[in-house]
Amino acid sequence: MSSKYHRAFGCYGIIADQQKLLVIKKTGGPYINRYDLPGGSLEDGEALTEAVVREVREETGLTALAFKQVGVTSFKYPWDYESWHYNQHICVLYDIEQTKGNVQAAWTSFLVRTR
User: Fold this and answer.
1) For position 73, what pLDDT does the model report?
2) Which of 65, 73, 71 is nearest to 97 (CA)?
3) What is the pTM of this model?
4) In angstroms, what is the C-alpha Rg of the chain?
5) How many CA atoms lie less than 13 Å away from 101 in the CB half-sphere?
6) What is d(CA 24, CA 58) in angstroms, rounded to the nearest whole number?
7) Could you give the CA distance from residue 51 to residue 64 in angstroms, rounded to a whole number?
8) What is the pLDDT of residues 32-72, one digit of tens each?
9) Second CATH level (architecture) for the domain 6-113
10) Among the four residues 29, 52, 65, 114, which has the most C-beta atoms within 10 Å?
11) Could you tell me the CA-to-CA distances from 24 to 6, 10, 52, 91 in Å, in that order?
12) What is the DSSP letter of 82?
């Protein structure tokens, strides 16, 4: 039996102030050249909070010191990748309230201005 939807699950950090939102540009994999919140999949046996701290550090160079879970969502969309034509993405979102460090230039990160 084949499934219609590929399923992706990840934890994502929202790092923002009143004027800017930190996003990253994906440089590989099925989401290449798309902008996204820093985050991603869990490693084997990893807790949700461990995953968001690790992913934020890997993708931005920042260490998340204070954060809280602010929501969970799931959305489906057309997606041509390998044998799949649809994806269902399940996201756990965290408000990153305090960080240590500086955004590293080695990562393709952008501060996007909001209105």
Assistant:
1) 98
2) 65
3) 0.84
4) 15
5) 13
6) 11
7) 11
8) 888 999 999 999 999 999 999 999 999 999 999 999 999 99
9) Alpha-Beta Complex (3.90)
10) 52
11) 23, 15, 14, 16
12) T
